[in-house]
Amino acid sequence: MAASAALAAAMAEAPPHGASQGSSALAKRIVSAAVMLPLALAALWFGKWVFAGLVALAAVLMLREWQRLPDGPGPVGIDPRALALGGIGLVAAIALMRVDQMLASFIILLLGAAAYVWALPARRAWAIGGMLYVGLPCLSLIWLRDMPDHGRLIVFWVLGVVWATDTGAYAFGRVIGGPKLIPAISPNKTWAGLLGGMLCAGLAGYGIASLDLRLPAQALGFFAALVAVVAQAGDFFESGIKRRFGVKDSGGLIPGHGGALDRLDGVLFAAPFVALGLLLWGQGFWS
User: Fold this and answer.
1) Burial code of 67-78, b = ≥16 C-beta within 10 A, e = fewer?
2) Which is it for the CA torsion 137, 138, 141, 142, positive or negative?
3) Tell me, what's the pLDDT at 280?
């Protein structure tokens, strides 16, 4: 998945326990990133059905993790019928988005959500939330990648800004410390980390936009700082859900990283935000 390019950057995050465990976790992160980053960048470069297919795969994997979260830690049962119905809906919606059928894509997404809800009658609100939480960002990424002229660079910009946010937040929070941001949800995140993430995101956004001299790099640098806040909100949102159900990681898909939701939480908020910005301001903002 192209979005998984952000996974590689997550190896800069703090290890949860002790120096030896931290070294082991870092080694796993590096190996995972070395495998996934080339695949992600290749999908982003080629676009079309290569990109859409990997985004669809990521969507199904994230939907699976979302389905299991309410069961808390330990072994859980995944309802294959619900996963199949929801997954089919997401894949169909992404396929329609790829052929430039936006309205039909959102209709199929809603139908997939309805099927997913029908298969999980005890968790209807949760099922609807999962389809929207996972589905809308994935459709946004497809739509952004298919933008004429700048689609590849836009998605790379989004991923780079999220990566810079995570890295800057960790580095500044670790070095400066200070007051906690929302300790009840994420006790390690600080105001210094948020500001550092915004600063690094702004620099990254400016630098990536500067790769194309036709783009307003300075404006996109300021916009990147705002996207950093949104990405951090995505991080807090997923952290709050995991804390609510007593879960440390959303899954164990990626050694050293956790689950797909753990590594893409910022992208899940940032991608729809950037897509909305393009819809409101028009593509002229990127030309």
Assistant:
1) bbbeeeeeeeee
2) negative
3) 83
- pLDDT one-digit tens code per residue, 73-99: 765 556 676 667 667 777 777 777 666
pLDDT, tens only, 199-217: 999 999 999 999 988 888 9
For residue 254, the cross-strand partners are 258
Residue 204's alpha-carbon distances to 140, 166, 219, 277, 285, in angstroms, are: 21, 12, 12, 18, 17
Q: Which residues, including other chains, have CB under 8 Å from residue 244's CB and lie 6 or more apart? A: none
- Lookup: tokens for 142: 């497809």
Nearest CA-CA partner of 116 in 138, 87, 96, 76: 87
What's this model's pTM, rounded to 2 decimal places? 0.80
Helix locations, the chain, DSSP H: 5-9, 19-46, 48-68, 80-98, 102-119, 124-145, 151-176, 191-209, 217-245, 260-281
pLDDT band at 228 (very low <50, low <70, confident <90, very high): very high
